[in-house]
Amino acid sequence: MNAILIVVGGLIVMLAYSIWSAIRSYYQKGKIKGIEEAVRELQVGMALHLEAAPTPDVKKALTDLHKRLRHRNSRISKGTDRIHPDLWAVGAALAEESWLKGHGAGVRRKAPEAGKLRIDLSAAELLQIGSLANLGFQYMMPNMRLIDAPRFSGNDDALEASRSISKIEAAIPKMHRPDLILQVTSREILIEDWWQLRTRKA
Q1: E strand residue ranges, 102-148
Q2: ∠ at Cα 140 (139, 143), nearest 5°?
Q3: Which of 55, 59, 61, 155 could form a Cys-Cys staple with 195, CB 3.0–4.6 A?
Q4: Which of 11-25, 37-51, 130-144 is predicted least confidently?
């Protein structure tokens, strides 16, 4: 009787182990199929978005991932799954390619039209240049009253305005650009002479 119970118990244990192994195997195969399907969908979506063939980095990452899926051990590993680094590599490669496409499109969108220039100026520099341009326009008018013209508040104010003008001058195409050093030097001489004179008088 005991022998029969032992045999029956062993059969039950073997049956339970077989069922558990089958469930685990089914889970692992389903997981791999799910990853493969997700990667295929991702490739289709990225191809439509990028409108170009995958880069060598993307191809290598996908090849490594497929190799890992084909030769993946069915045993459940503790900690980080070995497939995770391959998935990270695919994600990083696709992200890099998407960023390059988006960055290139952004640069093209921000680029000035052909024959035009774009200069980066702060709000203070724009105010200085606008004020100087307005003063220059008024100075060119025959009915301008110079006594009403605004003046620089001091040496530093004049130097900052000179630097703002230099940015504009430096953006002029080389074939039309004036001598930048000569322009800056002439302005700095005017500034130095005026404020040194006022210092001596004081």
Answers
A1: none
A2: 75
A3: 155
A4: 11-25
